[in-house]
């Protein structure tokens, strides 16, 4: 047996790449959440401390960071629902590829709508 | 490319030496698997609404400041909302990272230390986040100076 079989049902195909993306986005959200609870806890230090840190976040670079974070969450959420459908819905495994394309389509529509709103707040009035 | 046909591994009766029952670890892994799915469904609602309030509604991110948080946490519904979101997201994320550590850290000692750091961080963040929600004071007096805001009593 060669060590890396080329193209099985799973390896190297949609199922694997969506799993890689699910894993990376999960870790990114986790580390964001650790920092997020820490910065929110500044409301217990003083209103000024909280406002100073939040104000430092209000710039275009962080605005783009928020866009990336929301992109990661929306993918992880939609693909997570796909994983749940594959596990619990009788036809889930059969349609897992179509489900992935639905995830990508819904992700795209959500992100276009969100970008219009968020970027106009970040870059405009 | 024709896909090879693979028999379902669960068809037919399972020989006793392959059943998963009766191991000393009990059902923990199965419960963890189920928890990931149940918490995931609830988190979609909790987090999407949270993002709506903080990034889209009103003035979007521009509207977020101390007064915004005070306004939200004046309502017990949002306190409970954030509390449940904190606990579920942290436990879901911690269990997910535990899986990833088990996958990649091959040495027993490495796994042990990575997981110790993980669990310690989880406890600190959950305790801190819970305390922050329930000890929040919208009109604190710091070093004798009262916070000034329209919703605070004038001294
Ligand atoms: C950039 C996007 C985000 C912004 C601007 C934001 C903003 C805020 C704000 C202003 C608060 C204070 C309380 C409130 O408004 O309800 C808060 C609390 C909280 N957020 Fe977010 N949030 C974001 C993303 C997230 C995400 C993705 C999660 C979950 C993974 C999350 C989880 C929480 C939790 C658990 C709390 C309560 C913290 C505590 O107990 O001290 N947030 N967030
Ligand atoms: C928005 C709603 C969410 C849904 C629907 C969801 C769904 C899921 C599901 C079903 C799994 C299990 C995947 C599997 O067993 O193969 C999973 C794994 C994971 N989730 Fe979430 N999740 C959500 C939010 C979050 C949040 C807020 C975090 C971080 C705090 C997170 C971090 C992770 C991690 C690290 C894994 C492990 C990934 C792996 O083992 O490859 N998820 N998620």
List keywords for this structure.
heterodimer; A: 125 residues; mainly alpha; 3 helical TM bundles of succinate and fumarate reductases; elongated; B: 155 residues; two-stranded antiparallel sheet; 2 strands; 61% helix; binds protoporphyrin IX containing FE
Question: Any overview of this molecule?
Answer:
The complex is a heterodimer of chains A (125) and B (155). With 125 residues, chain A is mainly α. Chain A has one domain (13-123): Fumarate reductase/succinate dehydrogenase, transmembrane subunit (3 helical TM bundles of succinate and fumarate reductases), CATH 1.20.1300.10. Chain A contains four helices and no strands. Chain A has helices at residues 14-40, 47-57, 60-88, 96-123. In chain A, helix 1 (14-40) crosses helix 3 (60-88) and helix 3 (60-88) runs antiparallel to helix 4 (96-123). The longest helix of chain A has 29 residues, at 60-88. The model of chain A has no long low-confidence stretch (mean pLDDT 91). A two-stranded antiparallel ribbon of chain B has the order 1-2. Chain B is 61% helix and 3% strand. The N and C termini of chain B lie far apart (79 Å). Chain B is built from four helices and two strands. Chains A and B meet through helix 1, helix 2, helix 3 and helix 4 of A and helix 1, helix 3 and helix 4 of B. Bound molecules: protoporphyrin IX containing FE (2 copies). One protoporphyrin IX containing FE sits between chains B (47, 50-51, 54-55, 61, 64, 69, 72, 78, 82, 85-86, 89, 129, 132-133) and A (29, 33, 36-37, 40-41, 66, 69, 73).
Query: How many E-type strands of chain A?
Result: 0
- Beta-strand proportion of chain A: under 5%
Task: Specify the CATH architecture of the domain at 29-136 in chain B.
Answer: Up-down Bundle
Q: How many H/I helices of chain A? A: 4
- Helix/strand class of chain A: mainly alpha
CATH topology of the domain at 29-136 in chain B: 3 helical TM bundles of succinate and fumarate reductases
Helix content of chain A: over 70%
Order of helices and strands of chain B: HHHHEE
Using the alpha-carbon principal axes, give the shape of chain A.
Answer: elongated
Described by its quaternary structure, the protein is heterodimer
Mean pLDDT across the residues of chain B is: 90
Can you identify the CATH class of chain A? Mainly Alpha
Q: Runs of chain B with pLDDT <50, length 5+?
A: none
CATH superfamily grouping of the domain at 29-136 in chain B = Fumarate reductase/succinate dehydrogenase, transmembrane subunit
